[in-house]
Write a structure and sequence with these properties.
- The chain is mainly alpha-helical.
- It has one domain (2-18, 44-121).
- The chain is built from 4 helices and 2 strands; from the N terminus they run H-E-E-H-H-H.
- The chain has a two-stranded antiparallel ribbon.
Length: 131
């Protein structure tokens, strides 16, 4: 039943925990810097890490969408609920009206659309007509 839990809930909860705890300014704090061979310095902020975690979660959600189990439908429904949570919070909460949160919301939307599309295609291949 663990497969029914959408992984996009992790960046959603993390964003809200940081937003409520430290404020949205914490997302611009530098986590690490790496000097490059070109002489430039590459920096990673907390906001970049949140986007990276959302993209990793999206990858695993796409992998889960290829499964045709009972939990798959529940996963898609819960993914839709997570997307609606993103949308409602984006529209109603002042600190969620950021580019970072919007990007997370778009990733959640891609998760919903890709999940339904991939599952529909995979289920179509599972159907066999006996003659």
């Amino acid at each position: 039943m663990l497969i029914a839990v959408p992984l996009m809930i992790i960046p959603f909860i993390f964003y809200n925990a940081v937003m409520l705890g430290s404020g949205i300014a914490a997302f611009s704090s530098v986590i690490m810097t790496v000097p490059m061979l070109s002489g430039a310095v590459w920096t990673m902020t907390l906001g970049d890490l949140v986007i990276l975690s959302a993209l990793i979660a999206l990858f695993f959600e796409v992998l889960k969408a290829t499964l045709t189990t009972r939990g798959s439908l529940m996963n898609h429904m819960f993914s839709m609920v997570v997307f609606i949570g993103f949308l409602v919070e984006f529209l109603l909460v002042r600190d969620a009206a950021t580019q970072l949160f919007f990007s997370l919301m778009v990733i959640a939307f891609i998760d919903v659309v890709a999940g339904f599309t991939i599952s529909n295609r995979a289920a179509g291949r599972d159907v066999s007509i006996g003659l």
